[in-house]
Amino acid sequence: MKLTLTTTALALILGLVGPALADIKIGASVSETGSASFLGDPEAKTLKMLVEEINAAGGVNGEPLQLILYDDGGDPNKARTFATRLVEDDEVVAVIGGTTTGTSMAMIPVFEDAEVPFISLAGAIEIIDPVRPFTFKTPHTDRMACAKIFEDMKKRQIQKIGMISGSDGFGASMRKQCLAIIGDYGIEVLADETYGPSDADMTPQLTNIKAKPGLQAVLNPGFGQGPAIVTRNYAQLAVGLPLYQSHGVASDGFISLAGSDAAEGVRLPGTALLVADLLPESDPQRAVVVAYKTAYEKATGKPVSTFGGYAHDALRILVDAMKRTGSSEPSAIRDAIEGTTGLVGTTGTVTMTPTDHLGLDLTAFRMLAIEKGGWKIVE
């Protein structure tokens, strides 16, 4: 019998080469389906696309990434289950995800206990305030969104507003944050209404708001389908006053859901990604957002969204940290993430510190308006 050995096999027998490099396992749990799928689907697509790109370019420090991705459907209980699985069974070194505030908050205790770095993709300030050692996030906070909106109102001499907020985790949090700082801008809330995640008509609440004497504008803290319904009902009632939305609906998907006619003139704080083609060549974010937008739309055939941008930035922060530390140990990665400085992403330029696990300020927001079915910079 003739025995044939490959070169690699012979080398292994002779001890001439070591074992193959192990993949660096990173985890993710996003709401790829369910009520928050318009947020989670582009996040999932972005993570898959970027991991493929990184591996094709040689991986991280010469080692390939292995993405272990779960779809929690927007269910906090499922998200917590997947968080436990990622830590105990999959043995990942870091996790990206938490499409919504609810799923993020459900997962945080798991990652903090296991001391595995977690980069959330949700908006509420509670995710990073108070600071938790292993928890970070990429979207601007709801409190920052309130401040950006109130700055714009003050410039337009708007002093009396109505609020209609979603009762979900994000809507409730942003309502709380807005009410906490609105007095600093000399603005008074004449009406404070809410709606549930499954409500299909907000006409009664908007009618109450419209009836308030002296009303000058309306603000809708919320995300998901609720704000689109509010926008349609607002147009049907012909309120005729400025309508502000949150950064939680900063996507072309919102315009489609609300209808371009109903959404005409709506203002909200958003990222450079939504107006990539309008940025001047001198803008430090232009190259990053144009590159991501081009790659995403080529790979998926769909318009880029702010929410995919949050995942883009989270993975860039994670990879940058691993490259700088030269380690795939969770504790080393955590320290390196906290030391992120001047990283230009789609959401802004990130500089984190031990007391700031977001690393963005208000200059990262752009005040945008919807005009003829598209986006316009209004500051």
From TrEMBL:
It comes from the Bacteria. Residues 24-358 form the Leucine-binding protein domain. Keywords: Amino-acid transport, Signal, Transport. Pfam families: Peripla_BP_6. Residues 1-22 form the signal peptide. The keyword ATP-binding does not apply. InterPro entries: BCAA_transport, Leu-bd, Peripla_BP_I. The keyword Cytoplasm does not apply. Belongs to the leucine-binding protein family. This is ABC transporter substrate-binding protein. It comes from Rhizobium helianthi.
